[in-house]
Amino acid sequence: MYNAGKLSWFSKSALAIGLLFLYIPIISLIIYSFNASRLVTVWGGFSTHWYSILLEDEQILDAAWLSLKLAFASAASAAVLGTMAGFILARFKRFKGRTLFAGMVTAPMVMPEVITGLSMLLLIIQIQQLLQNTSWHFERGMFTIWLGHTTLCMAYVTVLIRSRLIELDRSLEEAAMDLGAKPLKVFFVITLPIIAPAIASGFLLAITLSLDDLVIASFLSGPGSSTLPQVIFSKIRMGLNPTINALATIIVLVVGILVVGANYLMMHSQRKRDKEIAAATKS
């Protein structure tokens, strides 16, 4: 009889190969960030020299700060809009234009980023032309990149929230409404805490997508608003630079801490919620 709790040698081998394939490049990058040699692939001894150079590079630091601001701003707006869109698609099964709405919300997820960036650039240019003779005007920069990243990230958050709401047991919500709770109160008191882990996952995914994006930012950025991926790409085109290894190591460290912290908080919240449900069931 097959034991689901015990992996076969083939499964263990496949898992090990997959993990090695994913993490060996990252480990190699971290190791060579402490390389004293300017040659990226030749070990010249242990040194933190490139980290000190990185901290003095104003172009990279400014781009990193801009990317972090964009990532958190885009993730926050995408989490709010994605939660609203996912709730509508999951709970309102029939309304006029539902198919069009669902397609427009999820289109950035399946559409090439080149098309998304180009279409948004053309839209922004048209808006700039319409506002040319008015007191309302804006230039391409952080705001336009934020619009592009929010549009992209919202699609992924919507799919996550919709999937969580579809599989959600609605008995708690129905019980609360039977006791006289208004729909808005039910959403904030019952539904929102239950789907909070999905919202947190969508928020972290949106941060990752924003920090990773190069194509959309290239179309929507303006003078003095280059994101970190743009700066890294421009530096890599001129040759491998050891400071990029140091920068990538810091990013991996920060992302790792955020992921571990978020997973701990979600697991702690889930255990607390399970205990409360178990206590309410017994009573």
How would you explain this protein's 3D organization?
This protein is mainly α and 283 residues long. The chain has one domain (50-282): MetI-like (MetI-like fold, Orthogonal Bundle). It has helices at residues 9-32, 49-55, 58-91, 98-110, 113-130, 142-166, 171-178, 183-212, 215-220, 228-237, 242-282. Helix 3 runs parallel beside helix 6 and helix 4 crosses helix 6. The longest helix has 41 residues, at 242-282. The two termini are 40 Å apart. The model has no long low-confidence stretch (mean pLDDT 85).
Low-confidence stretches: none
Helical fraction: over 70%
Tally of structural domains: 1
The CATH homologous superfamily is called: MetI-like
**CATH architecture heading:** Orthogonal Bundle
Distance between the termini: 40 Å
CATH topology term = MetI-like fold
Q: Proportion of β residues?
A: under 5%
| Overall pLDDT confidence | 85
The biggest beta sheet reads: none
The Cα radius of gyration reads 23 Å
* CATH secondary-structure class: Mainly Alpha
Helix-strand topology string: HHHHHHHHHHH
Structural class: mainly alpha
Per DSSP, the total helix count is 11
Total strands: 0
Which descriptor suits the 3D outline?
Answer: globular
